[in-house]
């Protein structure tokens, strides 16, 4: 055999993520890229299919501008909870108390603002501190005393629900000040020339599209600099185009009604902040480390107790924020508020890609999982599906999501 032929035969294959070898079938390259990224993008694809299904099933009512705004407002508090719950699950724990803590915060806020006439910004600050203190108390017992999170938060669920009954004396209390109501039900004010669309919402949408394209291109460039696996060019272009198109459609729908809800801006700020922390900050990487392999994390110098304490303190503050949003949306605090909301948040996290064993999950995945549940609820209400069958369908969706996670792990191991 000639030296030239030997060189061609023994040349190593091109590293994964780089340009495809000459003559490689494009379809096979795309299929390989999809297979490697099924876990990360599968639920986004599922969300798109669910939206398309209900858009057809409801005769176009699902994506009416008014309904899209209601979809955001109705699910805002679950999405806030899902962000914190995803971080808790990634760290290898669970929190069953968030629904009851929501009710307690709403009740305390109502007593402060309605009965004692405390200014609503001061009351909001105090109730957020209350939520943080409740989360820190649970975090102390979990991290430093060593009681399992399931037991501690189960006790917290009973404790906070009982305290809510005590504070509210078993009655519903309201109404709330207008300023607080606008956080949960208000929209961005209009500005600029008179058009058929809400101008500030259009500007925010354009800025978000530019940010998405910039971030995806930057992340891809960094991955290539470190010789990490990247999506094939065609699949990457499809991903960026799909994300930009989804943002554009959502922006136009919101801008054609009353504009972006105020609570949507709060959600966007939480998504950007916690997404950055979990991806880039040291504490975010430590959360993944202790959830993925606690023993290895300890040997690497990770202060697991402090990280766990911080995770539950953060969950308590987010539960307090969700409780204020929920109470303000319905303009009243109720002892029965937040019932089963902890299950909705847990389901959103698992549907969004969290792993039962910890160490896996993203903040964006929690939002996607929450939207899947929200679209299912909204779509089934529009077509008249009874609440009994709604519970059955949501249970099957959760089971399918966790089953997919197990199957994906086994496939990766094989």
Total helix count? 17
- Net shape: globular
SS strand fraction: under 5%
Give the quaternary arrangement of the chains: single chain
The number of strands is 0
The end-to-end distance, rounded to whole angstroms, is: 37 Å
Q: Decide which structural class fits the backbone.
A: mainly alpha
Describe the structure.
With about 425 residues, the chain is mainly α. Helices cover about 75% and strands about 0% of the residues. It contains 17 helices and no strands. The protein has helices at about 5-10, 25-35, 40-55, 65-90, 100-115, 120-145, 150-170, 180-185, 200-225, 235-255, 260-280, 280-290, 295-300, 305-330, 340-350, 365-380, 385-414. Helix 6 (about 120-145) runs antiparallel to helix 14 (about 305-330). The protein starts with a helix and ends with a helix.
List the defining traits of the structure above.
414 residues; mainly alpha; 17 helices; 0% strand; disordered N terminus
Write the layout of secondary structure elements.
Elements lengths: L2 H8 L15 H11 L1 H20 L7 H26 L7 H18 L4 H26 L3 H20 L9 H8 L13 H27 L7 H23 L6 H19 L1 H11 L1 H6 L4 H27 L10 H11 L11 H20 L4 H27 L1
